[in-house]
Write a structure and sequence with these properties.
Number of strands: 0
Structural class: mainly alpha
Helix content: over 70%
Shape: elongated
Distance between the termini: 35 Å
Radius of gyration: 18 Å
Strand content: under 5%
Low-confidence stretches: none
Mean pLDDT: 90
Number of domains: 1
Length: 100
């Protein structure tokens, strides 16, 4: 499970929106660190590549389908409209502090 493909898929699952609720990433990162200590540097490259690819895919999914998902959520739960508007206001006003 902690070979190269397993580390890549574990890091990808941790960074990808949806499966990240069920896949903890820390065991894969720790296993990659242990393998790096043992001299297998390719494990670290694969786990970092999986995390980067999952992060970029999650961004693309949110960019492409985020507005539609928010509309469906507001239609399903009307109380979330206020929370989303509050979040947008907070990001517009103090976005730098939120990112930091």
């Amino acid at each position: 499970m902690f070979d190269g493909l397993g580390l890549f898929l574990g890091a990808l699952g941790d960074a990808l929106i949806g499966p990240n609720l069920f896949v903890p990433g820390e065991p894969f990162f720790i296993a990659a660190g242990f393998q790096l200590y043992s001299g297998a540097w390719m494990a670290l490259v694969l786990v970092m590549l999986g995390g980067l690819l999952g992060d970029q895919l999650s961004y693309f999914i949110g960019y492409r389908y985020g507005a539609k998902a928010q509309r469906r959520l507001i239609k399903f739960r009307p109380k979330t409209k206020r929370l989303i508007a509050r979040c947008r206001y907070l990001v517009a006003r103090k976005g730098t502090y939120i990112i930091l």
